[in-house]
Amino acid sequence: MNYSVGEKVATRTAFGEALAQFGGRNKKVVVFDADLSGSTKTEKFAKLYPDRHFNFGIAEANMVTAAAGMALRAKIPFACSFAMFVTGRGWEYIRNSICYPNLNVKIVGTHAGILTGEDGATHQALEDIALMRSLPNMKIICPADAAEMYLAMDEILKDFGPTYIRLGRGDVPVIYGPDHQFRIGFGDILTYGEDISLIATGTMVHICLEAAKMLEDHGLKVMVVNISTIKPIDEKLIVDCAQKTKMVVTAEDHNIIGGLGSAVSEVLTEHYPAKLHRIGMEDRFGESGKPADLYKKYGLDVQGVYERVLTWWENRSL
Hints:
The chain is α/β, with parallel strands linked by helices. The protein has helices at about 10-25, 35-40, 45-50, 60-70, 85-90, 90-100, 130-135, 145-160, 205-215, 235-245, 260-270, 290-295, 300-315, and strands at about 10, 30-35, 55, 75-80, 105-110, 140, 165, 170-175, 190, 195-200, 220-225, 230, 245-255, 275-280. It has a seven-stranded mixed beta sheet, sandwiched between helices. A five-stranded mixed beta sheet has the order 9-11-10-13-14, with helices on both faces. Strands 1-8 form a two-stranded antiparallel ribbon. Helix 11 links the parallel strand 13 and strand 14.
């Protein structure tokens, strides 16, 4: 891994590089694409190992079903497409052909969230976490940066079972160094504080880190937490955060229904009832526009997160 902290790299780029590196060593790995190898960044693997790469065309349902068949033959298939289409079009087949028999298929959805930008609402997956969370046996990994995605690949290959890997289109700052230890099912505390727990996933992690710095100017100490495994979620860490801070907030580039916010709410409801504020797309579709403009419009940029958290904090006792 050759990413530097602060460098801007898309998680899908890191996925493609890690797949070629780790997947290349493991001859059980096969890669399926839906005519999008340039976008999903699997083209490097395809060039190095053409006998283990298969292009199914724009036919995601067929692709994931074939992946199930490969898994039954002891292969480790990676079925890759835009998050909107691999989870949406393929959901029934993922459910019945992959999750029900608990097969070792890795589903990769790139271009998730409104960070997808100009492609617009039809291509911006805001429901994919909710769809995959509802499936028994499915794990969900949403890395915060390129370094985490790259380092996660080794664990993903060692772990057995259906897994959904959620990746973004655009470049985001690298947060982690090469010594980061990724573990499926565990979150990661990035900054410590006793006032606010700011729990984020994916592209929202680096934004929350910047917002936390701005909140410090108001004397607030913020615990920023990266939940890169949304299922199984780190229940102990979430409860600990709620117990140690006075306010809990989640942030995600996803519909607030069924995503990270819902998952955290379920944990708190069952184990440590606490009020939760959710930042994300508020039960609506996205739209076409530059990613930065969309993040600003919907309050997912640094300023938007900062202002909402500060307002909630100032009105917490009302």
